[in-house]
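Message: I would love a firmer grasp of how sequence relates to backbone shape in proteins. Thank you; the sequence and its tokens follow:
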Amino acid sequence: MKRKKGNADRLTAGAWWSRNRWSCVILAAALVLFIVVRMAAVTFEQPQPRGDEYAEYETGVVTDILSDNTEADTVADGGYRGEQLLLAQVRSGQYKGETMQVYNYVGPLYGQPLKVGQRAVLLISTYRDGSHTATVYEYDRAVGLAVTVGLFLLATVAVGGKVGAKSLVALAVTLVCLFWILIPLLMKGASTLLTVFLVCAYITVVTMVILGGVCRKTVCAALGTVAGTALALLFGLLSQSLLRIDGLRLTDVEPLLQLRQTGTPLGLRGLLVAGVVISALGAVMDVAMSISSALTEVHTVAPDRDGRALFRSGMNIGRDMVGTMTNTLILAFLGSGLSFIIYLYSLGLDPRQLISSPYMATEVISGIASSIGVILAVPLTALITSFILVKDKKPKAPCGSKPEDKKLPKEVQ
């Protein structure tokens, strides 16, 4: 019996490898590529020694309130103003365990009153003579962030099961690529648009393989996503040229301009369209996978449909998605700038003044170019999927299905 069980285990492992070998090969190649690019993206420098005077950010806990003159300001919608003198015990760094007097400066736009027992991030300044002082930098949000992220992970796995867990892995890959590959490459002077597009294509391939393995459905979805993202990039460049505006007119580009003046060869002009491509990637990927998955199911049930019929089915499915997805993208961009929109509305600007403002131009490019990527991903994915599926008249089980699911229902047969 033990021998039979061992043979069954080996057969199961062999079957798993047979179904997933290409996924493993592609993910292994992607990992090697990631390591190579990461090594090229980062310039290893020796850590610079600290000078005679330096500042550190450490955690601390409020143990006592010595004075407090903070009060709510009705003009600032109940925001607090004033300052506190606190006793705080340092919980990290070279001064761990020491109790210090710290000032907490509070205003409507920064800081908040603290209570005994609350944690805060302390800015500790050390001087040449060895003395040191501390002020409250901000409320310590590490625990709150951990709880929020934990609830998100729990909900994703609880509702999505294995697919939800895979989506979290794909999300982690996306974040690592953005922060460990894209930004370091841009900081070293790599071409902004080309680098962003290649990183997005890499994220697309790895994400699709993680979620669905290597099969026709994921191949079609990946190709549709890359094509839709490329068109969003091209339309963004066209809109940028027509409106005569680029990344130099972004509202938060001034610190980056100062960074260039210190010698960092960061390309600023392409940042506007680069942001469009990154923001559109998730929506385009969603649309492409939905259409590819739906057409694969249609082909599995009705393998006699020709490519034209499959394309029409994909377009019918995609039209229902375009309206809501486009609305989602536009509202996302408007929602991110809601406070500034309210400010502009309060000024009572002339329509011509508003239309010609850089803010309006950048928002139009961001919202519409992203939507164009989603809209054009529909026919592109439908065309690619129908072309690939009609080559094989024999229906195959969708990705991730069990062998016994390959049989069609009797009424279809």
About this structure: The mean pLDDT is 86.
